[in-house]
Amino acid sequence: MSTSPETTIAGALTPHHDRCFVCGPCSPAQVELDLRCPGEEGIVGDVVLDARHQGVPGIAHGGAIAAVVDEIAGSVLTRLGVRFVTASLTTTYHAPVMTGERLTCSAWIESTVGRKRTVVVELAGAAGRVVTGRALCVDVPEEHFTRLGLGSEVTDLFGR
Ligand SMILES: CCCCCCCCCCCCCCCC(=O)SCCNC(=O)CCNC(=O)[C@H](O)C(C)(C)COP(=O)(O)OP(=O)(O)OC[C@H]1O[C@@H](n2cnc3c(N)ncnc32)[C@H](O)[C@@H]1OP(=O)(O)O
């Protein structure tokens, strides 16, 4: 991944819309998430999961972590203007994530094959790596959303 000087475009990356379950300010579970673009590809940032996201008391819920991984992977693609959905998501938990713990994240495209892109997301705490996620994202046409009765409220989100 490039490590050229950071360009902060967090406003364009998160929130991508107000009612997003993970990043939207209207969500009661909004995750503290600040994503930045270090160069041409990939993103870096900070993430904090709090008491609203716990499973075992004091420890972030694995499902909440997976949602954050999906969000970060998606942000890598939307900043490139890719219209996609997540087809598959795997999350490896190397160590517990404590609620309130500030994590750093980095994410990049690992491979592109036809319509399929694999995005890797790594989360690390002060003691080192805690989570590695892989999202298989598939490019879709605008009709993927319009045939579901969804209009510009969705299609306009891509390419921001
Ligand atoms: C909605 C987003 C809003 C975003 C707003 C903008 C802002 C964004 C910010 C980011 C933050 C949010 C990021 C959330 C992102 C989601 O959460 S998206 C919502 C959850 N995901 C879905 O709803 C997807 C549901 N599934 C589907 O719609 C369809 O199965 C798919 C994925 C479009 C694929 O169907 P298809 O277009 O008919 O394509 P198909 O030929 O079946 O598959 C294409 C290729 O992918 C492979 N493939 C498909 N599924 C799989 C799988 N599960 N495992 C392995 N391979 C697979 C196929 O084998 C095939 O491979 P090749 O033969 O080409 O080698």
Automatic annotation (TrEMBL):
Coiled coil start-end:
none
Where primarily located? membrane
Domain of life, per UniProt, equals Bacteria
Q: Which GO terms describe its cellular component?
A: cytoplasm; membrane
Membrane topology category: Peripheral membrane protein
Q: Which GO terms describe its molecular function?
A: hydrolase activity
Q: Name one GO biological process term.
A: fatty acid metabolic process
Report the subcellular localization. Cell projection, Ruffle membrane; Cytoplasm; Membrane
Q: Does the keyword Cell wall biogenesis/degradation apply?
A: no
Q: Where are the transmembrane segments?
A: none
Q: According to the UniProt entry, what is the EC number of this protein?
A: 3.1.2.2
As for family, the record states: Belongs to the THEM4/THEM5 thioesterase family.
Q: What is the recorded name of this protein? A: Acyl-coenzyme A thioesterase THEM4
Taxonomic classification, please? Bacteria, Bacillati, Actinomycetota, Actinomycetes, Propionibacteriales
